[in-house]
Amino acid sequence: MATTHPHEVAPLSSADTVELFKQYVIGNYTRYPVNLVRGEGSLVWDAEGNRYLDFFPGWGCNLLGHCPEKIVRAVQEQVATLIHVPNTWHMDVQGRWAQMLSQRSFGGKAFFCNSGTEANEAAIKLARLHAGKGRYKIITFTGGFHGRTFGSLSATAQPKYHEGLGPMVAGFLYAPHGDLAAASSLVDDETCAIMIEPIQGEGGVKIPSKEFLEGLRKLCDERGLLLIFDEVQTGCGRTGQWFGYQHFGVEPDLITLAKSLCGGIAGGALLAKNEIAPALRPGMHAATFGGNPIAARAGIAAIEMIEEEGLLAQAVQLGHLFERRMQDLQAKCDLVREVRVAGVMVGVELSVEGAQVVKSCLERKLLVNCTQGNVIRLLPAMNLPEEQAEEGCDILCDVIQSLPRA
Ligand SMILES: *Cc1c(COP(=O)(O)O)cnc(C)c1O
């Protein structure tokens, strides 16, 4: 009998794959009609052999590019040694991972889970438990994005994501992003926390003023609230610092992480200051796969790779490159309203809809994202080679400049 190995089977064509999805996969995503089969660095290939330059690898999860060798090796080794054991045991890899995160943030403790929304659920629970009886309200901000499970969704102050799903979890109050006075006026005796992305990602790469975040810190200190930073998108080196908060010199009490935390492997974490962490007592919260050996090994390898290869500095350099290219574009193209850059987190706000830009870039084999209707969002890998950055910027500039005028 002939044996076939899965990797020897030719991939299905893109068209056949689309058919398979139509029949068997729930259609809750808008997907490009392309079957991606392989990735390396900032390049991916489809079943037809087309090569794409990826400026949005893994929706922000592949901060180190596709299949980074160090992560691949760590995972291969771990998967052959110990795949999963429950959190009723100790695992040195989980402990060492927590230590590494602690040493690069504010020296607290970690709870591990598998995604961003889960990390935020843990933060919400911890904030309520820490505050004690009767204090349950959490203030969040318009345009924020915290995830899709009900706690995180209720924290997400964007009506479009709530449509048809109500009622939301009680106790979330929304202030306009950037409005310190409004946030302050929402605080009462039942408030336990303020939760915010230090830089809004899905909201359009919105960078708040240092004064605003400082003001939130002060408000939290005065009223005995926890300050929660959702760093699911900004964390783990994305902005050229380990964590987004380090840009502003404003230290939160809780940090949530996921997306690029494990170099493309699924993983999430909540980091809590030492004096707050004990409120998450045994039995109060759990995640079966949280901090599993594979995620832990990948998480450790991601941190090591970033440090060994000087990638934080490289993210800053790449940020300058994107800023220069997009500002040059803005100078000669009146469709570009604003350019917002923090390391390898780039937002180009247009005065027209951005969907056509994504489509035209795809036709020219460049992958970009559009959020909030008119913000072209790039979350490139921090090890994107400069030539590829320039190559992609050439395409993007060309596409935006040839957009039809309204
Ligand atoms: C993506 C994202 C989330 C949700 O993460 P999932 O892993 O999809 O649950 C939460 N917060 C922010 C800031 C995000 O960018």
TrEMBL record:
Q: Give the reactions, separated by semicolons, that this protein catalyses.
A: N(2)-acetyl-L-ornithine + 2-oxoglutarate = N-acetyl-L-glutamate 5-semialdehyde + L-glutamate
Q: Where in the cell is it found?
A: Cytoplasm
Q: Which amino acid positions bind N(2)-acetyl-L-ornithine, per UniProt? A: R148
Question: So which cofactors does this thing need?
Answer: pyridoxal 5'-phosphate
Q: Which GO terms describe its cellular component?
A: cytoplasm
Q: Does the keyword Transferase apply?
A: yes
- Give its E.C. classification number: 2.6.1.11
Q: One MF term from GO for this chain?
A: N2-acetyl-L-ornithine:2-oxoglutarate 5-aminotransferase activity
Q: How is the cofactor bound?
A: Binds 1 pyridoxal phosphate per subunit.
Q: What is its main location?
A: cytoplasm
Question: Which BP terms in the Gene Ontology apply to this protein?
Answer: L-arginine biosynthetic process
Q: At what positions is N6-(pyridoxal phosphate)lysine found?
A: K259
- Tell me which InterPro entries the record gives: AcOrn/SuccOrn_fam, Aminotrans_3, Aminotrans_3_PPA_site, Class-III_PLP-dep_AT, PyrdxlP-dep_Trfase, PyrdxlP-dep_Trfase_major, PyrdxlP-dep_Trfase_small
Its UniProt pathway annotation is:
Amino-acid biosynthesis; L-arginine biosynthesis; N(2)-acetyl-L-ornithine from L-glutamate: step 4/4
Entry annotated with the keyword Amino-acid biosynthesis: yes
Q: By its UniProt entry, which Pfam families does this protein fall under?
A: Aminotran_3
Q: What keywords tag this UniProt record?
A: Amino-acid biosynthesis, Aminotransferase, Arginine biosynthesis, Cytoplasm, Pyridoxal phosphate, Transferase
- What residues does pyridoxal 5'-phosphate bind to? G116, T117, F145, D230, E231, V232, Q233, T288
This protein's assembly is summarised as: Homodimer.
HAMAP family annotated for this entry?
Answer: ArgD_aminotrans_3
Comment field (misc) = May also have succinyldiaminopimelate aminotransferase activity, thus carrying out the corresponding step in lysine biosynthesis.
- Family listed: Belongs to the class-III pyridoxal-phosphate-dependent aminotransferase family. ArgD subfamily.
Q: What is this protein called?
A: Acetylornithine aminotransferase
Q: What is the species of this protein?
A: Pirellula staleyi (strain ATCC 27377 / DSM 6068 / ICPB 4128)
* Higher taxonomy: Bacteria, Pseudomonadati, Planctomycetota, Planctomycetia, Pirellulales
This protein's encoding gene: argD
